[in-house]
Structures
1.
Amino acid sequence: MLKKSPAMKKRGVRGSTSGRPIMALLDLLGRRWTLRIIWELRDDRSLTSRAMRTACDEASPTILQTRLSELREAGLVELVAGDGYRLSGLGKDLFEHFLPLHRFAERWSKLQSH
Amino acid sequence: MLKKSPAMKKRGVRGSTSGRPIMALLDLLGRRWTLRIIWELRDDRSLTSRAMRTACDEASPTILQTRLSELREAGLVELVAGDGYRLSGLGKDLFEHFLPLHRFAERWSKLQSH
DNA sequence: GCGGATCGCTACATATATTGTAGCGTGGCG
DNA sequence: CGCCACGCTACAATATATGTAGCGATCCGC
């Protein structure tokens, strides 16, 4: 564990040091619950932190809070007082690319156990 | 830790019990290195397990092996003897949806530290 | 103002997943 | 054979996620 640059305490998504934004993005999205959170906010939905917990199969608030903070810092999610968490404009753009995943998942599941 | 169904030792992607394929897919893709692995196999690339390790910033072989096995079982990646790991037809279909992420990541990174 | 309910969020101990290092068995090639 | 690279695994150390409980703040009806 002596790799990864001298200073990488909290901020700075993994791979962001490489200067390749795609790596930073893939790392951010490849953390547990991140994709799920974005998915649950589809269709301009807004969820309170506790509604999110319910939506995410009662995931622990610790990690949801962590992920929501990361996504807020990344500018993909925003917290609107009195309303809850929502996708930002940027977040919606990102989600656009995930939408076809739904159809893909259906097709994929049919080939799973074959 | 007494949730998550009685029998869920190894097989069975999380969320697959819900009968919603998208959840199973999001869970599979939301594991560390999974998105990165798929990304490194873009453009019909084929990588040996050790080349993959190099491509993935010297990630530990343990987890790469685990992820590659999961992806093989999911039918998204295949191992061709004497050639290496490659995306399957299904895997390529999936990757198609990720391709626009590259452009998105560029745009996103510019808004990061503002 | 005082309950009661809910909000976003955090502490803390436990369980699980990931990491890094070393090395196995196999196969190709000189 | 000696040498090298392959796919893959064991194992101890570390990092990360989980589950439970509860904080302070806010809103609302009484």
2.
Amino acid sequence: MQTLSKNQQIIFDLINKSPEPLKAYTILYNVQKKGIKAPLQVYRALDKLVEIGKIHKIESRNAFIACHNSSCQVAKATAFSICEICEKVTEISSDSLSKYLANFKDKDGMKYIKYNLEFFGLCKKCKVK
Amino acid sequence: MQTLSKNQQIIFDLINKSPEPLKAYTILYNVQKKGIKAPLQVYRALDKLVEIGKIHKIESRNAFIACHNSSCQVAKATAFSICEICEKVTEISSDSLSKYLANFKDKDGMKYIKYNLEFFGLCKKCKVK
DNA sequence: ATTAAAATTGTTATAATATAACATTATGTA
DNA sequence: TACATAATGTTATATTATAACAATTTTAAT
């Protein structure tokens, strides 16, 4: 368990308490009162937090959420469900899914060291409407 | 089988003959001699081509490749392998993978209508080096 | 053929996302 | 201590993408 630097901690705290994925410039806006003034300060912290697996980037949304999967020390196998109406994002933690994907081998003999899976659909709430 | 408009056809042809994913502004640069002058003209064609499944967006790379999966009329279930050294991208077409993912259900009862999966690793060539 | 709706195009401006380059300070560790 | 590594601060700029508006072309129903 790694200790975070000042900026990393500030930005992680913000993302961690957010119910929804946050975008880099939304983060910037929200941490300016804490002395983080420039985009690069945000992006550097985000890069590091992604690298150590404390947060994940939702690629299709250019947004970041905290990892809620205790086994996720490094961001090497991620899966998310994304509601196309309310944009709610949930990290999927399914043993069978992660086993299946970790063992997946394609024809080319390529060795995978990482994957990212994004499911899109309607969440329970939005499906009813 | 849908007929493409002029701009769509120009841009699809370029992507389709490219061995690697192309970025929007690379595309723009390469079609300026054909009269497409503005980013928006490129993005509009890309949006449409993605919508009808002729091309796919590689989200982690902000780049586009032609679909080489004949069954892919609509971009609703996509999987790619990406080499982290040479950036070669290949569309994966595996019946067992697509079946597994199409049938995957998470705990929340969310109904998925689409997914995108990106595997990262080293391709055969880069693994040897 | 007529015509109304839908799709596509053209254009300018600007928004949103992300990195380069350089100087400085803090932290970890031999 | 002192050296390497990581983190910070700052300005400028590169890259990716969309807003807003006007015009034209295509499609499909009458």
